[in-house]
């Protein structure tokens, strides 16, 4: 079973987001454990369960790290201003994944010791949109479209430099977590590479040289955090016979989707 659903309305009230995410994962784990035919459970977590990107701040995260800062910020007393929405989302992913592993350590050991559980932690998903006209552009696809439409200042306010993952590579890593026998009880870091505002602009210009886009940003902030993504790249090479989809190729696929919706 692959569990991908999560509250994505970016409500800044933690009581309306975090308990829902936690109960969803625990209830699905119980249902999966009750089915003898279910052998594996894959949870779509998030980079936000590990840390919140801070521009120009170096660091290194590991598979043992959690975004406790987001949890603290999310559960701070009201008022629940819109500016707190991302930290509430990050806390929901953090506490939901923590609930996943807590269940594995406690109930799972006795109820279903044979059940294999993995978590995939993607960063900013970009690339092909399945149905641009009906689906539209939500989440990171919508954030990147702000730059494509020339709204650079709004884009900068919405998204910061961080890692990306092509959405199809993300799907392949979910399949690896579901199907490969040696992938057991792992946190898989679906982080392909970093981008900043000028690498975005360069990729958009490469995808469509005739598109009018904003000028480069002077001294753009950088993302300097290192992550343990080697295992994910190894798994990609096994299931797809290639490594990461490049940032330029992912942007080109997303631009094709943008044009299909016009």
Low-confidence stretches: none
Question: What fraction of residues sit in β-strands?
Answer: 5-15%
- What is the CATH class name of the domain at 1-122? Alpha Beta
Strand order of the largest sheet: 1-2-4-7
Shape assignment? globular
Q: Name the CATH superfamily assignment of the domain at 1-122.
A: NAD(P)-binding Rossmann-like Domain
Order of helices and strands: EHEEHHEEHHHEHEEHEHH
Major beta-sheet overview: 4 strands, parallel
Q: Which architecture of the domain at 1-122 does the CATH hierarchy give at level 2?
A: 3-Layer(aba) Sandwich
Intertermini distance: 36 Å
Q: Mean pLDDT, as a whole number?
A: 95
Roughly what percent helix? 40-55%
The name of the CATH topology of the domain at 1-122 is: Rossmann fold
Counted beta strands: 9
SS class: alpha/beta
Question: How many helices?
Answer: 10
Q: Measured on Cα atoms, how large is the radius of gyration?
A: 19 Å
Give a brief description.
This protein has helices at residues 18-33, 68-74, 85-111, 132-135, 139-148, 152-158, 167-179, 197-207, 230-240, 247-260, and strands spanning 2-3, 40-44, 59-60, 116-122, 124-126, 162-166, 187-190, 193-195, 225-226.
Describe this entry's structure for a reader.
The protein has 262 residues and is an alpha/beta fold. The chain has a domain of 122 residues: Rossmann fold, CATH 3.40.50. The protein is 46% helix and 13% strand. It has ten helices and nine strands. The strands form three sheets. Strands 1-2-4-7 form a four-stranded parallel β-sheet, with helices on both faces. Strands 5-6-8 form a three-stranded mixed β-sheet. Strands 3-9 form a two-stranded parallel sheet. Helix 2 packs across helix 3 and helix 7 packs across helix 9. The longest helix is centred in the middle third of the chain and has 27 residues. The radius of gyration is 19 Å and the shape is globular. The two termini are 36 Å apart. The mean pLDDT is 95.
């Amino acid at each position: 079973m692959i569990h991908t659903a999560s509250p994505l309305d970016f409500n800044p009230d933690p009581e309306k987001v975090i308990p829902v995410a936690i109960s969803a994962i625990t209830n699905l784990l119980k249902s999966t454990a009750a089915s003898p035919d279910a052998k594996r459970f894959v949870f779509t977590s998030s980079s936000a369960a590990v840390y919140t990107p801070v521009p120009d701040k170096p660091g290194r995260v590991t598979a043992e790290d959690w975004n406790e800062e987001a949890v603290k910020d999310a559960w701070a007393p009201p008022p629940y201003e819109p500016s707190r929405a991302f930290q509430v989302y990050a806390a929901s992913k953090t506490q939901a994944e923590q609930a996943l592993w807590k269940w594995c350590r406690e109930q799972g050991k006795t109820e279903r010791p044979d059940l294999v559980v993995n978590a995939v932690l993607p960063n900013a998903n970009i690339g092909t949109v399945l149905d641009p006209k009906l689906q539209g552009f939500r989440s990171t696809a919508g954030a990147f479209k702000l730059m494509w439409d020339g709204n650079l200042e709004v884009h900068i306010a919405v998204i910061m430099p961080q890692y990306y993952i092509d959405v199809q590579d993300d799907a392949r890593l979910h399949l690896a977590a579901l199907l490969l026998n040696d992938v057991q009880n792992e946190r898989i870091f679906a982080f392909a590479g970093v981008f900043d505002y000028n690498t975005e602009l360069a990729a958009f210009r490469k995808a469509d040289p005739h598109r009018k886009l904003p000028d480069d940003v002077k001294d753009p902030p950088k993302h300097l955090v290192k992550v343990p993504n080697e295992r994910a790249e190894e798994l990609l090479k096994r299931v797809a016979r290639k490594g990461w989809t490049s940032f330029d190729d992912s942007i080109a696929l997303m631009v094709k989707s943008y044009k299909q919706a016009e």
